[in-house]
């Protein structure tokens, strides 16, 4: 037992569990024994009063096996078709395993565009919380058969991090094929050591992870660290651990030192700001002057038209944009109250002048501070 772990887990109620393809599938397609064992553990946790939401991969791996396809699928249509074959089987296997424990499951298939639309995002949140109230386990996967690049999460680690935010999880458990994060690639060096605790995800920590994957996985350790960074930044601890290890979930919840624990960072972004920062793709840029930069960064103020010097891109009211300084440093991301063309007309002006120029004034601010997320670091972004 480890006191840091017990302290971190002390008030855990809602757990987001992500299981990767490499855990669920063996040479014979879906590994029913592993799935049964993990489901048994999830059901035990549910009976102990925890609420569980599961994000699971395995559709493509299962479809490939059914179709006797070996090696990696290359094209998107092939992956989409394999997922269409495998997703049904994946759900059947899970629901049978849960039913053995007298518990039900619900399937939710998502694309990124379901989460970038605020209304659909809220609908998903309501569905998930109702299922949790009913003690039904939501089983989520990317809707691979319809997802193309522009609306893809990229990998299920990213999807799982977004769902952890939606349900305001107390813990994110990412079950994978390795024991956790190693200080160097364990498949290349015998000296690689497992890191049990990460207090902060620094560049050095990110550098330890590679994007090397198994023949069925996506993203590798790198995408798991990125997901860990996203959730810990909003105050959710994350544990990366080996999904095939016996009793892994009960060991984690007992505070045993298994896998790698990433501690939550103290500054917590609320759910809406997380959505703005991590779910939405920016549609344009506002270049702002030094006065506005100071107001945003040091004083926590909203962005007014007077501080804007230029507008790049075409976007509409409510769209997400990046705010940059005159040197091209990324400062913040937020939702605009005015469309690009309107901002071009009112930039540099004082708030009372908005009405006389546009003929309407719905807001004083171009971006209200409640819809503005400061990036924290001033990364240069290429145009
Ligand atoms: N959605 C994919 C599947 O179920 C997996 C994506 C991933 O593992 O990141 O097969």
Overview of the molecule:
The chain is about 40% helix and about 15% strand. By secondary structure, it is of the alpha/beta class. The chain has two domains: about 5-275, Acetylglutamate kinase-like (Carbamate kinase), CATH 3.40.1160; about 280-375, Archaeosine Trna-guanine Transglycosylase, Chain: A, domain 4, CATH 2.30.130. The strands form three sheets. An eight-stranded mixed beta sheet has the order 5-6-4-1-7-9-10-8, sandwiched between helices. A five-stranded mixed beta sheet has the order 12-11-13-14-15, with helices on both faces. Strands 2-3 form a two-stranded antiparallel ribbon. Helix 3 crosses helix 5 (about 75-100) and helix 8 runs parallel beside helix 10. The radius of gyration is 23 Å and the shape is globular. The N and C termini lie far apart (about 50 Å). It binds glutamic acid. Glutamic acid binds near residues 20, 61 and 142.
């Amino acid at each position: 037992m480890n006191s840091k772990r017990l302290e971190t887990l002390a008030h855990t109620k809602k757990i987001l569990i992500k299981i990767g393809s490499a855990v669920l599938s063996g040479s014979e397609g879906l590994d029913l024994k592993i799935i049964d064992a993990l489901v048994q553990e999830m059901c035990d946790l549910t009976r102990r009063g925890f609420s569980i939401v599961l994000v699971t991969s395995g559709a493509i791996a299962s479809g490939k096996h059914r179709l006797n396809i070996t090696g990696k699928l290359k094209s998107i249509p092939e992956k989409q078709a394999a997922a269409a074959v495998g997703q049904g089987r994946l759900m059947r296997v899970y629901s049978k395993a849960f039913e053995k424990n007298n518990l039900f499951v619900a399937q939710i298939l998502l694309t990124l565009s379901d989460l970038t639309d605020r209304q659909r995002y809220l609908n998903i949140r309501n569905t998930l919380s109702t299922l949790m109230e009913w003690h039904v386990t939501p089983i989520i996967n990317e809707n691979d058969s319809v997802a193309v690049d522009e609306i893809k999460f990229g990998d299920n680690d990213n999807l799982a991090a977004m769902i952890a935010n939606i349900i305001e999880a107390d813990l994110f458990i990412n079950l994978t094929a390795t024991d956790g994060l190693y200080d160097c690639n364990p498949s290349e060096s015998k000296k690689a050591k497992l890191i049990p605790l990460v207090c902060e995800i620094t560049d050095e920590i990110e550098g330890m992870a590679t994007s090397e994957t198994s023949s069925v996985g996506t993203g590798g350790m790198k995408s798991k660290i990125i997901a860990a960074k996203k959730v810990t930044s909003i105050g959710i601890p994350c544990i990366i651990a080996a999904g095939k290890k016996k009793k892994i979930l009960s060991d984690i919840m007992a505070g045993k030192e298994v896998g790698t624990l990433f501690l939550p960072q103290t500054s917590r972004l609320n759910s809406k700001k997380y959505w703005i920062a991590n779910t939405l793709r920016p549609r344009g840029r506002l270049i702002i002057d030094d006065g506005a930069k100071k107001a945003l960064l040091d004083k926590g103020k909203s962005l007014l038209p007077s501080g804007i010097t230029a507008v790049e891109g075409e976007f509409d009211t409510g769209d997400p944009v990046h705010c940059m300084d005159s040197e091209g440093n990324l400062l913040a991301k937020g939702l605009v109250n005015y469309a690009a063309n309107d901002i071009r007309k009112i930039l540099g002006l004082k708030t009372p002048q908005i009405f006389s120029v546009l003929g309407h004034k719905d807001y004083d601010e171009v971006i209200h501070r409640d819809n503005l997320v400061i990036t924290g670091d001033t990364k240069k972004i290429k145009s």
